[in-house]
Amino acid sequence: MGVAVIDETHLQAVTGSRELVRVEDLRKTFRSGSQEIIPLDGISFSIERGEMIAIVGPSGAGKSTLLHIVAALDTPTNGAVYFGAKSLKSLNETELADYRSNAVGFVWQRHHLLPDFTAAENVAMPMLVRGEPMNQALRAAQEWLGEVGLADRAGQSAGQLSGGEQQRVAIARALANRPALLLADEPTGDLDERNAESVFELMTRLHRSHHLTSILATHNLSLARRTDRILVLDHGKLGPAANVPAGMANASTEYSATVAAQISETLGEPCLNATQRRLDA
Questions:
Q1: CB 184 within 8 A of CB 128
Q2: Domains of the chain, with CATH numbers?
Q3: Which of 27, 59, 66, 272 could form a disulfide with 78 if both were Cys (CB 3.0 to 4.6 A apart)?
Q4: What angle do CA 100, 102, 105 make, to 5 degrees?
Q5: What does the pLDDT look like over 67-103, one tens digit per residue?
Q6: 3-state DSSP call for residue 34?
Q7: CA-CA distance, 142 to 123, in Å (whole number)?
Q8: How many other CB atoms sit within 10 Å of the CB of residue 131?
């Protein structure tokens, strides 16, 4: 069943801290020929238990890279990620595998379902990987499909489902092992407006009902403004939407001064106030 990396409830009782994830001075570099690419350039932020935050920024800004590092699917060049009080760098390979399997749920833009397997079998996969019996995993998968509104599609092969239904199955699969942290990388990016709205409402409901901590990377500002807090990532820098770093406002990208202004206009007073309260704290 895996190694218990962190007992999150016990950790909070002992430390009194509500902080679940802390990223410190994170830097990630790649080389492309003779050119050094720096998608993450010394970024730091934290997220409290129960919080849902959105990370917005242009394509290629490093949003996926950041989520992959937090999920321990990639490693930073420098800096650290803490889950509770534990640095991911301090975990051995077995503990990292347990963290990925049990502490974190991940939803990708493309669902990555196995098309010839049923919806229930796809949702059961994470439970089977950690050693649960098939019948038990399939019963739990059926319950999760009920939570995402697809109980009647459990026996349907994933390849025969609509795009919106496939993403709902992917969300159920991400939550199958009951993680504390949900990471979603453009989860509505491949959906039309109606399905995007439906999937986002579902994620928000599950976030609340299962007491999740959620980080959502998205281009959709109308959805982002409905989270607790928005961070903007561009040119390797990360900052709150109410206080966009100068480099972002002057960037010659789709998040240029015009779009930076659009962010400020679109977020709305509640989000701006929530962000400012955290800056003042």
A1: no
A2: 8-280 (3.40.50.300)
A3: 27
A4: 65
A5: 999 999 999 999 999 999 999 999 999 999 999 999 9
A6: coil
A7: 8
A8: 9
Tokens for 180, please give them: 């504390």
Q: Of 24 and 190, which is predicted with more confidence?
A: 24
Q: Which two tokens stand for residue 213?
A: 């901590």
**Residue holding tokens 């970024």?**
43
**Residue 36 belongs to what H/E stretch?**
strand 35-48
Please state whether 149 falls in left (phi above 0), alpha (psi between -120 and 50) or beta: left
Residue that has been written with the tokens 């999937």 in this structure? 199
| Strand-by-strand arrangement of the 181-185 sheet | 104-107, 181-185, 213-217, 52-56, 229-234, 237-240
The token pair at 214 is 């959620």
8 A C-beta contact, residue 189 and residue 166: no
pLDDT in tens, 191-241: 888 888 999 999 999 999 999 999 999 988 888 989 999 999 988 999 887
